[in-house]
Specification:
about 20% strand; five-stranded mixed sheet; alpha+beta; about 30% helix; nine-stranded mixed sheet; single chain; about 350 residues
């Protein structure tokens, strides 16, 4: 019996190590593919906004890292049809907008370079949505493309422009990745793909996060008003270290907890699930999380049996506890220090705050 138990443990350890190797390999392959490809982000944005647009010559060229590419919306040939065009573009076939968001994979293993190459965001609980501001209107859509809400906003292109909001006379637009909190009617901004016509899809995540914190601070989107009924607040992001993780885990969050997101600094924004965006949570970090095998989980399965189908075996077996996560971050941090890297910082130091950008209160 002891021998059989030992063989079983060795087999489980080999399977676990193989799973970690496969996850690391998929992350490396995805990064390599991103660096060698150039997507038609103009066509992607055109499909979301629904109006003709063209990229300015030389936009985004040069430099070792991807740069924002400026795209100009073309004014409608028939001004009398502007309202109809806006309605068709923002309220058209929802399939055009489905699967437009970058979705996280479940953190079944902790990346070895998490302290050097990743950033951490506290995820608010709420409705994940795609927000498009264009043609004087702001539209939020669910993950399946269905309209969640239409309203004016202070986002560029999101409401009828007054004299202070005219931008060289040219129409402009934004595309954001948000989480909507129905209780406070607040949109928490996770990422930005387009801002005032600048394409950020192919920019690194670290730059996009810095950009959205900086640019949201330049408009009045964080303050509720008659022409901006729903505030837009950027989600703060942090370096990954034992101290920052411990403090964030224990801190009081300004919104209902929905887990922790880990994003690779160099990933571009891509549609669908990505191994370069990971979600971690436990019972203390999310009201919707159930420890596998717990009494709470059994009650939930009994109440809603269909939910059990979403709890995959590999997720159940590979769930990372906070103690394991903290230990793995510590190992990664030590490896960085041994290699002379300065990728991790001490304390709960927000990257955005360090650069003077605004964060959610």
């Amino acid at each position: 019996d002891d021998l059989n138990e030992l063989i079983s443990k060795v087999g489980g350890l080999k399977a676990h190590n193989a799973h970690e190797d496969n996850a690391a390999r998929r992350r490396e392959d995805r990064l390599r593919a991103q660096r060698s490809s150039r997507r038609d982000v103009v066509g992607l944005a055109r499909g979301l906004v629904g109006v003709p647009m063209e990229e300015e010559q030389g936009a985004g060229d040069g430099g070792p890292e991807p740069r924002p590419r400026l795209v100009a919306m073309q004014v409608q040939a028939d001004p009398s049809d502007e309202a109809g065009a806006a309605e068709r573009s923002l309220g058209g076939d929802k399939r055009r907008y489905s699967d437009a968001l970058m979705l996280p994979e479940w953190m079944s293993d902790v990346p070895a370079d998490v302290a050097r190459s990743w950033l951490m965001l506290p995820r608010p609980a709420g409705q994940r949505c795609l927000v498009v501001s264009a043609n004087g209107q702001t539209t939020a859509r669910r993950r399946n493309g269905a309209v969640l809400a239409r309203f004016p906003s202070a986002l560029p292109g999101g409401r009828r422009a007054g004299p202070r909001e005219q931008h060289g006379g040219a129409p402009t637009f934004c595309v954001l990745d948000c989480i909507f909190d129905a209780q406070t009617r607040t949109y928490h901004v996770l990422d930005v793909m387009v801002w005032r016509g600048y394409m950020l899809y192919d920019c690194h995540a670290q730059f996009r996060l810095y950009w959205v914190h900086t640019k949201l601070g330049e408009v009045d989107a964080a303050v509720a008003s008659r022409t901006n009924p729903c505030p837009f607040l950027p989600v703060p992001y942090y370096e990954v270290s034992r101290s920052s993780l411990s403090e964030l885990y224990a801190a009081a969050w300004p919104f209902v907890r929905g887990g922790l997101l880990f994003v690779h600094r160099e990933t571009v924004y891509e549609q669908g699930a990505s191994p370069l965006l990971l979600l971690w949570t436990d019972k203390a970090c999310s009201e919707r999380f159930f420890d596998f095998g717990s009494a709470e989980m059994e009650k939930e399965v009994a109440r809603a049996p269909a939910k059990a189908e979403k709890w995959k075996d590999e997720m159940r077996e590979a769930a990372v506890s906070f103690v394991q996560l903290l230990a793995a971050v510590g190992e990664s941090e030590a490896a960085c220090e041994a290699a002379g890297s300065d990728g991790a910082s001490d304390g709960l130091a927000s990257v955005s705050a360090a650069r003077g950008a605004r964060t959610a209160p």
